[in-house]
């Protein structure tokens, strides 16, 4: 299954298109649909598949490369980068993860859901690309 299957740009979403594409790539990596070393489509291929401007995809790839999420090998393509973290970065990442989980739990509660409602959906998304 393609890591992009089920991901589409939502024109009704006020989030900019480039941010939706970035979120989609990061989500595919986090869910394991894209693994370290996996090659991403070319800018043009992904632009056609997502029905967005190629410059938008190029901007996202460049941003994610600067962030260390992707790496471009000249003449070969763009790949999910292997990331290593210093102990200090690990502490910061753990803190950020805790903040995200707190926000997620608060949003669940706000919308009338419980953790038990969300876990099957999270698991489905994690395994749908496996």
Question: Which superfamily, in CATH terms, is the homologous superfamily of the largest domain?
Answer: Winged helix-like DNA-binding domain superfamily/Winged helix DNA-binding domain
Q: Radius of gyration over alpha carbons?
A: 16 Å
The residue ranges in which pLDDT falls below 50 over 5 or more consecutive positions are none
Q: How many structural domains? A: 2
Largest sheet: 2 strands, antiparallel
Overall 3D shape: globular
Number of helices: 5
Report the end-to-end length measured between terminal Cα atoms. 8 Å
Q: Any idea of the CATH topology of the largest domain? A: Arc Repressor Mutant, subunit A
**Proportion of strand residues:** 5-15%
Fraction of residues in helix: 55-70%
Count of β-strands: 2
CATH class of the largest domain: Mainly Alpha
What structural category characterises the helix and strand content?
mainly alpha
What does the average pLDDT come to?
88
Topology, please?
Elements: H1 17-30, H2 43-50, H3 54-66, E1 70-73, E2 77-80, H4 87-110, H5 115-127
Antiparallel strand pairs: 1-2
Summary keywords:
Arc Repressor Mutant, subunit A; mainly alpha; globular; 130 residues; two-stranded antiparallel sheet
How would you characterize this protein structure?
By secondary structure, this protein is mainly α. The chain folds into 2 domains: 17-80, Winged helix-like DNA-binding domain superfamily/Winged helix DNA-binding domain (Arc Repressor Mutant, subunit A), CATH 1.10.10.10; 87-127. It is 55% helix and 6% strand. The chain is built from 5 helices and 2 strands, in the order αααββαα. It has a two-stranded antiparallel ribbon with strand order 1-2. A hairpin with a 3-residue loop joins β1 (70-73) and β2. The longest helix has 24 residues, at 87-110. The mean pLDDT is 88.
């Amino acid at each position: 299954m393609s890591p992009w299957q089920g991901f589409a740009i939502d024109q009704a979403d006020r989030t900019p298109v480039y941010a939706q594409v970035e979120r989609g790539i990061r989500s595919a990596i986090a869910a394991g649909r894209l693994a370290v070393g996996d090659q991403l489509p070319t800018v043009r291929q992904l632009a056609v598949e997502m029905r967005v401007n190629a410059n938008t995809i190029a901007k996202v790839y460049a941003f994610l490369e600067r962030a260390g999420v992707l790496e471009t090998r000249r003449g070969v393509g763009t790949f999910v980068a292997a990331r290593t973290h210093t102990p200090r970065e690990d502490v910061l990442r753990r803190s950020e993860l805790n903040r995200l989980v707190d926000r997620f739990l608060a949003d669940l509660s706000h919308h009338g859901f419980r953790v038990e409602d969300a876990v099957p959906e999270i698991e489905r998304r994690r395994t749908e690309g496996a």
